[in-house]
Amino acid sequence: MTNSQTSKKQEPWKQEPGKRELPPTAWAVLGLLSFPGERTGYELKKWADSSLRFFYWSPAISQIYAELRRLEELGYAASARSGPEEARAKRRYAITDAGREALAGWAAGAAEAGPPVLKHGLLLRVWLGHLHEPERLRAMVGEHLERTRAELAAVREAVAQAGEVPEWAFPALALRWSERQHLAELELGKALLADLAALDEPPGAGRQADGDAPTPG
């Protein structure tokens, strides 16, 4: 058997290139399906809101259904409508063997995950601080700290829920990372408030009177 044949046998998700060219949203939805049980699109959205959004993002419900259709077309997911025992018919989705194999290959693939993408709306406004009143900037940072505290409480609730389910051991690890990240964000916000307060001080050490950026030496 040649090396190429061996590679195809070990990595079957690579036999059909078109099937593996999926956006991250598709892999995320398939990942939600990879845990035990069948779920509706609405249930997948709720789970994404209570887990994925804390360290990645939560796709809109329309995106979830669009990706579920794509995954079914590829044979990576299957669905069935509920029976007459339920008052409202629901379509529940489950991952297929082919989908689990493809997902495992993507998750362990050689391609780099890439650097984190930071889009910090507050920092963009701070960067444009010369257009604001200092009081408004400080208020923005204070509002950001309050939101971060609320998010931290939500993360901790999610960590507690994940800790109760043995199959969610790895999601719990990601959520604990998110808890530490939110704690760090609080510290960064407090440091930013201190930096803004320092700008109110008269020009002196570390800041040139003509407004140029400070230079070392």
What is the element layout, followed by pairings?
Elements: H1 3-10, H2 17-20, H3 24-33, H4 41-49, H5 61-74, E1 77-81, E2 91-95, H6 97-107, H7 121-127, H8 134-163, H9 169-199
Antiparallel strand pairs: 1-2
Structure description:
- The chain is mostly helical.
- The protein is 57% helix and 5% strand.
- The protein has a two-stranded antiparallel ribbon with strand order 1-2.
- Helix 4 (41-49) crosses helix 5 and helix 8 (134-163) packs antiparallel against helix 9.
- It is elongated, with a radius of gyration of 24 Å.
Task: Please name the defining characteristics of this protein.
9 helices, 217 residues, disordered N terminus, 5% strand, 57% helix, mainly alpha
